[in-house]
Amino acid sequence: MEIGNIKNPSFLKKMSVFELEELSRNIRNFLIDKISITGGHLSSNLGIVDLTIAIHKVFNAPKDKIIFDVGHQSYTHKILTGRAHEFDKLRQYNGLSGFQKMSESIYDCYEAGHSSTSLSAALGYAIARDLDKKKHNVVAIIGDGSIGNGLAYEALNHIGSLNTKLIVILNDNEMSISKNVGAIHNTLDKIRSNFKNEKIKKVPYLGKKIKSGTKLIKESFKKIYMKEGYLFEEFGFTYYGPINGHDYDEMISYLEMAKKSNRPVLLHVITEKGKGYKYAESDIEGIWHGISPFDKETGIIKSKNDGLISWSEVISNHLIDIAKINKDIVVITPAMANGSKLNKFKEIYKDRFIDVGIAEEHALVMANSMAIAGKKPFVSIYSTFLQRGYDQVFHDIARMDSNVVIGIDRAGIVGEDGETHQGLYDIAFLNHIPNMIIAAPKNSSEAKGILEFAFNSKHPFAIRYSKQRIEYNNESLVISDYSWEEIKKGSDAVIITYGDFVNNAKIIANNLKKDKLNIGIINARFIKPIDTSMLDKIIKTKKPIIVYEEACLIGSLGSMISSYIVNSNTKIKCFGIKDTFVKQGKYDIIIKKLGLDVDTMTSNIKEFLGGKK
After folding, report:
1. What is the pLDDT of residues 308-349, one digit of tens each?
2. Is 168 helix (H, G, I), strand (E, B) or coil?
3. Which residues are CB-contacts of 470 (< 8 A; sequence separation ≥ 6)?
4. Using CA atoms, how far apart are residues 30 and 116, in angstroms rounded to an integer?
5. Are 526 and 482 in contact (CB under 8 A)?
6. What is the mean pLDDT of residues 251-262?
7. Catalytic residue check, 344
8. Active-site choice (57, 91, 275, 388)
9. Residue 281 confidence (pLDDT)
10. 360 is catalytic
11. Cis ω for the linkage preceding 529 (within 30 of 0)
């Protein structure tokens, strides 16, 4: 079948296993072709192709509800539901979302960019179905990394107590983004190991039968030798597994069995992340999880040879240097070692690197107690995932006034991942928390100085940095207090900004020279506390203030400055993100759409100041 001609999954009902296997190969080739051009989540989608096809063959979406935990593994689902023709614009502005999107299709019944929501969402659908006395199925597909998150356990506990009809499919590929860690991973690993043919062949007669696919004997064998599976039985589920996630006969048999059950069922399905593409199959660091455009023949990732590196790598390099001197520094990450470029730190300081898995809340509370015990924890966490740890930052770290340093990676516009991942809200939800310090360096040397200052602080300290690439400089700018930096004096107005936007402000100020406007620039490297001393000086000059931020306006630096100067009659204009969610697209396109690019800002500031002098 031509992939682009697929309208809905109904055609699968009449397909033989041979035809399904051919379809799997075609879809994998399609995904490799398209993602090599657009970039996107490759490994997770290659691994779940067969399982997704089997699910759609057995169940009847959209009547049956199919929920993917972390919607980035739903590419095959999108293809089977008629969206293959949109893959040329995958993750682009006004294009196909990289996640499930209810506005895209009636087959997308839920949306998620963060892990471990699928089980709670599925139970909500199941309870609503039961209240309406309907009979359709609810299916949640969750990864082995996601099921270790606390939210998943809350849902498992509730599902088991209700004993309602619900199907959970545990997609076990030993990986989330990086290789999984923790006790739940170890338990699943035992099940996988016990089930390998080398182990099975040691059992006379049974091994031969199991290997040939006799389901009844296979079940008996597992009940005798795989007691780890009873972990899920204790939660109230009927457990089946492990199941070969690339064997259609086996998957369909168990899916049909689960479909007939009237109580919670958990199918433990073993898949291979990256299946069908050798470079992704051999990946153990998560490089092929979310990938930039690449050469599909060689596996070489297309990158700019501009001498720049990511902010993540800059921070990681500085941490390595500082940790040489300060033996108390410990780096903690919730499953983002590769994304936050911490693998080098991990190699050098193995005993001082902790990956807690997908468990942001746990990472923050653990860091808090480590700080109280005299260590210097650095928690590296994406802005979008820090949202999940708000209570821990507030209730534990800030209230106890502990010196936990939080590296807020991917702050600002992140681009193609869209609404669920934009790092625009961390300032707003941290700003009002007592004891909290928030900083945003403009370059590498300032970042190192702020890091050193943060570890010598006595308070919770958050450092924001973006997804952009910058020039690396190992030198450290000495930071000894919370003061702002006056980069340029100006007689007509002053731009107050921070982070990457400092460079933009320089360009804007230079552009406005043509209009005979002399604009000053203040680097507000500390968003909290604000530098009231410098603000008082600006107020005395009666110069208009322009606050320029890559963050939501509500609760922003601009809102704090506005509140401080409210009685001074100082003219002020704040530019940032309005009260909205920002869709996916390339960074430059999104920034322009938001009116925060240098050209639009030049025009807007000129208009604010009344045009030419």
Report:
1. 999 999 999 999 999 999 999 999 999 899 899 999 999 999
2. strand
3. 308, 309, 310, 311, 314, 443, 444, 500
4. 28
5. yes
6. 96
7. no
8. 388
9. 87
10. yes
11. yes
- Label residue 193 by pLDDT band (50, 70, 90): low
Q: Where are the beta strands (DSSP E) in 344-450?
A: 353-355, 376-382, 405-409, 437-439
CB 77 within 8 A of CB 100: yes
Mean of the pLDDT values across residues 259-287? 89
Closest CA to 73 of 46, 105, 102: 46
What pTM value is reported for the model?
0.87
Q: Tell me the C-alpha distance between 596 and 549, whole Å.
A: 8
Per the CB < 8 A criterion, the answer to whether 438 and 528 are in contact is: yes
Read off the amino acid at residue 518: N
How many angstroms from the chain centroid is the CA of residue 183? Answer: 22
Instruction: Determine the pLDDT at residue 173.
Output: 85
CB 394 within 8 A of CB 401: no
Residue 286 pLDDT: 74
Average of per-residue pLDDT across 275-303: 85
Both tokens of 327, joined, read: 């033996």
Residue 297 annotated in active site: no
List CB contacts of 214: < 8 A, sequence separation 6 or more. none
The distance from CA 438 to its chain's CA centroid, rounded to whole angstroms, is 21
Q: If you ran DSSP here, which 8-state letter would residue 300 be given?
A: P
Based on the number of CB atoms within 10 Å of its own CB, is 529 exposed (0-12), middle (13-18) or buried (19 or more)? exposed
CA atoms of 406 and 511, how far apart (whole Å): 36
Element (H, E) at 120: helix 118-131
* Given 174, 228, 272, 360, the catalytic residue: 360
Helices (H), 284-412: 311-325, 343-348, 360-372, 383-386, 390-391
- Mapped onto helix, strand or coil, the DSSP state of residue 341 is coil
The total number of residues written for the chain in this structure: 613
Q: Which of 78, 273, 341, 543 is catalytic?
A: 273
Q: What is the DSSP string of 494-559?
A: EEEE-TTHHHHHHHHHHHHGGGT--EEEEE--EEES--HHHHHHHHHHT--EEEEEEEESTTSHHH
Q: Which two tokens stand for residue 398?
A: 């800030």
The one-character DSSP state at 382 is E
Among 241, 72, 105, 99, smallest CA distance to 168 is for: 241
Provide the 10 A C-beta neighbour count for residue 30: 18
Helices (H), 171-310: 183-195, 197-200, 206-211, 215-225, 230-234, 248-260, 278-281
